[in-house]
Every structure is written in structure tokens, then in C-alpha cells.
Amino acid sequence: MPKGSDLFVAALENEGVDRIFGVPGEENLDLVESLRTSKIQLILTRHEQAAAFMAATHGRLTGKPGVCLATLGPGALNFSTGAAYAHLGAMPMILITGQKPIMSAKQARFQIVDIVASMKPLTKMTRQIASAASIPSIVREAFRVSMEERPGPVHLELPEDVAGEELADAPVIPIHPIERAVAAPAALDRAIEAIKAAKRPLVMVGAAGNRPKLIEPLSSFITRTGLPFFNTQMGKGAVTGGSNRYVGTAALSEGDYVHEAVEAADLIISIGHDTVEKPPFLMRTDGGPQVIHIGYQSANVEQVFHPDLEVIGDIGTTVQALAERLDGQLSLDPHMLELRERILGRINDRADEDRFPVTPQRLVHDVRKVMPDDGVVCLDNGMYKIWFARNYRTHAANTLLLDNALATMGAGLPSAMMAAMIYPERHVMAVCGDGGFMMNSQEMETAVRLGLNLVVVILNDSAYGMIRWKQAVDGFPDYGMSFGNPDFVRYAEAYGAKGTRVTAVEDLIPALEAAFEGGGVHLVEVPIDYSENTRVLVEELRNRNPSVECA
User: Fold this and answer.
1) Distance CA 410, CA 414 (A)
2) How far is 161 from 179, CA to CA, in rounded Å?
3) What are phi and psi of 438, to 5 degrees?
4) DSSP symbols for 69-134
5) What is the rounded distance in angstroms from the CA atom of residue 440 to the CA atom of residue 436?
6) For residue 101, how many other CB atoms are within 10 A of its CB?
């Protein structure tokens, strides 16, 4: 007779799950046994946080929830950062945790924490499964909620006695297609009228515009209308950066080169902006451009973002309708395209600097030169993220993965591991600061065990560089941000990976090329110097706007 855990696994298979990432405990053993005889691969990680980052990245890249598994108490609590990462980043994910039996308490309160309550603010839905018979409906609902706009994580707690409960076979619930509502005709009419009336319209693509199914309609919209566009950090790659309408990426909130185009625009068509991101521009009540919000849901009204018009509905359908009605109808100010050339030219300044340790501009330039158009670069969080967001040109969708929502350290390596599993034929690179890398560096063993082809670039400045920069910008003395590091080459070799240390700027490209050619997991340590470049960046920003906050 089947058990609750068998039914749970059958429900996961019904949803198309082929991998689960995690660290099981004794409360999961029935589930582990059911997985053993299933089509689903259980992938052990060395920490639950990494499992959650991998599952979230699966959701981000495929649009279908990734799944991760942990035991009760400490294991479940280690999911917290990954849950928040997916929740703020709108990545569909299912988190499964175990629990002591709920019909008896032979171990009293040992290891018991109210995980359902702790997950409530971090997820779209959290639920304890109280009977095996309810498993098919709860799992189906979990996947529906996780994928529904706005996507995000859902948590399910499967107690030990429910997993082991025997029952007559209960059928899984079939998946049915769910169509999203489309925008109201009146809203489309108002948007068309505003776009046609504008002299210098500018498109902004945000995080919710960067969904796997939106690549074609968004790219077609830009091509057919001829409108210039820029993107937020998490909107980067939704429309190819190689387009001759790409103006840049808003890596900062104000005062950067791309904001010259924002200031020149009289209308911003904001597609999928999610205010969980650090603001790409600061909207003014008076004197600034009019803003149209195109989204699946109404915009959150914030101090720095309060759109004048909204077009709410399926984004793909909306931009297709706009493209059909605007195709050949717009007469654009040539000044915006001239401004585009000047902006892109200026952000490439100093890309060939030959100083060593390597500067951020040179790093981005050399990585772009090594990576093919479909190569995937996954960033951890640190000072270098600003330079990749500003300077790295994407030529295909979802080829620069960064987090500008929770912006947690430690996610770069696990997200790159997931990308390498989804795209085994592509070049995949993780770029991590030394601080962020060491937060989940134990997953090097996981990557080696899985036989991944992955290049991990470690930027070594022996400090928490981003906070050190902010400390300097705010006028505080340098204190409390420096640390020591292991020998990263030997560290990689201890896990069975390969290691290389770059000792001259001209060796960076050959080292990266050799790492990809050699295959397997290869760590490349690159000493980096932010000091001169951060000083120049601060001076540039303050010269253009003395009151600018370097956020």
C-alpha cells in the first residue's frame, strides 16, 4: 500500500520535477526512500542555503519552480535566506521541510521550531500537511501559487508520520493551462495616446519584464517601434544589449551616464518594473518625465516611483498590442540616439587599463571578450556588480544573472552551478568576491561531484569591498572590513577542482580561456583593485550632481 511520501513524490512528478536539491534529515527518510525509486534525482548539497539558491535559480531560468529539501529546525531555518532571495526576486520555488510526528510527541520539543510561522513573511504560501489524503491538492496548489504572477517561493512542511502514513491510492490532480488576464482596451488607448504625444519617449525594462516567455514579444516591441530603451539591473538581458536601441543599464539610482537619457526623456514606458529593486531612477512629482507602468500587477506606489498611467495585464500580450498599433507611427527625436552613442562610449572608458591588480573595467572587458554570446555569467554580490551591470553587454537573454532585490552574498556559486546543469553545452562562469565566495565555498565539492563544467572567478581584495567603498564615500575611516584569505588555488585543488592564480593583467584572458578549454570545475583567482576606480566613479557622479547619493 502506498505511503504519504509515495503520493508526495508522485505529485512532484506530475508537476514535471526532475531534480530536488537539499540536505535530508531523519524526518525526511520516508520521502528519501520514495525518491530513490522515482524518476526524480536527489542532489545533495553541503548547505541548505545553497540548495535554496539553486532551486530559485532553476525557477528564474525556466519559469518552473525549482524544489529543495531540508529537515526540521536548523535545516529548515537555513532555508530562510534562500526563501527571501526567491521572494524578493520573484523566482518560483518549492521548499519542502520535515517535522516531528504531529500525532505524537515522543521527543517532546526537541528541535521543534514553528517553521510555518517563520516562513510566512518569506513566502507566498506556507502550509503544514496534516494528512496524506490532502497531498495531491496541496502540491498542485503550491505549484500554481508559486508560478502565478508575481512568482515566488512556497513552503510545504511534511511531518514524519504523515509521510509514513499508508493510504489507498489517491490520484494526482491534472495540470490545466491558466491564461493571464489582458489589459483593458481603454488603458491601451491611453498609453498609445501618451506615447504618440511624446517627443522623446524612452522604454525601461524591469525585473518583471525579464521572464523567459517575454523575450520574443519584448524584443519585437523594441524592433517594431524603434524606441530607445534602458533596463534595471534585473531587467538586463530581457532585450538583447546588442540592439542599436539599447541606451544602458541603471546600475545606480541617479547621476550615472544612463540618467542623461532619463533626464532628456519626456515619457518613460516602464515595462515590468518591480520596486523591490534599488530604484533605477528617482521619479519627481514635478518637472520630470511622465511615466507609464506596464505590468502584470499595479505598481506599488513609492516615494520614488508613482506612475501617471498604468496598463495592467499580461505583459507579452500588452507589448504585442502596442507594437501593432505603434508600428511605423512614431517620429523619434534623433537626439536620443545621439545621446545613446555618447553614453555607451563613456561607460567603456578605461576598459583597456593595464594596471595590476586588475581594475573592474578591465575585468568586465576581458570577461566579455572570453564569453560567447550565449555564455552565462552569474554574479555574487559586491562592488564588481555595479561595473558588470553598467559595462557588460548582453547579446542573449538571461546571460548575466545578478540579484538586485535581496542582494545577498553567497548566491553566486550556487546560481552558476544551476545554470551549468540547465545549460551543459554553454560556457558558465561564476564571478564572486572573496567574501561572498567563502559564504558557500563548500559547494565546490558539490560542483565537482556533479561533474559540472564551470569556471569560478574569485576577485581577491581581502575585504568586504562594497561596504568598504560605502564607508569611504560616507567619510568614515577604513575600519572593520578587511580579512585574510586561504590560498584559493590550493583550496580549489583540495576539492578536486583545478586552480589558477592570475599574476599579471595580460594573463587574465589566457587564464579564463584555458579554464574553459580544460573543462570541469576551475577556480581562477584574480587580485582586484577598486580604490582608483571607486574614487573616479564618486568624482564623476558628484561632478554631474553634487548632492547625489552613491546608492
Assistant:
1) 8
2) 38
3) -70, -15
4) EE-SHHHHHTTHHHHHHHHHHT--EEEEEEE--SS--TTTTTT---HHHHHGGGSSEEEE---GGG
5) 7
6) 15
What does the block give as the cell for 357?
A: 591588480
Q: Which residue has the cell 536548523?
A: 74
Tell me the per-residue pLDDT of 3-13, one tens digit each, with 9 for 90 and over. Answer: 999 999 999 99
- What is the per-residue pLDDT across 487-538, written as a single tens digit (0 to 9) for each? 999 999 999 999 999 999 999 999 999 999 999 999 999 999 987 655 556 5
Task: Assign 3-class secondary structure to 172-225.
Answer: CCCCCCCCCCCCCHHHHHHHHHHHHHCCCEEEEECHHHCCHHHHHHHHHHHHHH
Report the C-alpha gap between 142 and 151 in whole angstroms.
11
**pTM of the complete model beyond 0.85:** yes
Q: What is the 3-state secondary structure (H, E, C) of 381-401?
A: CCCHHHHHHHHCCCCCCCCEE
Place of cell 516615494: 303
Question: What single-letter amino acid sits at 392?
Answer: Y
Distance (Å, whole) CA 45 – CA 364: 30
The CA-based angle 240-246-402, given to 5 degrees, is 55
| H or E segment to which residue 153 belongs | strand 153-159
Q: What is the CA radius of gyration of the chain?
A: 24
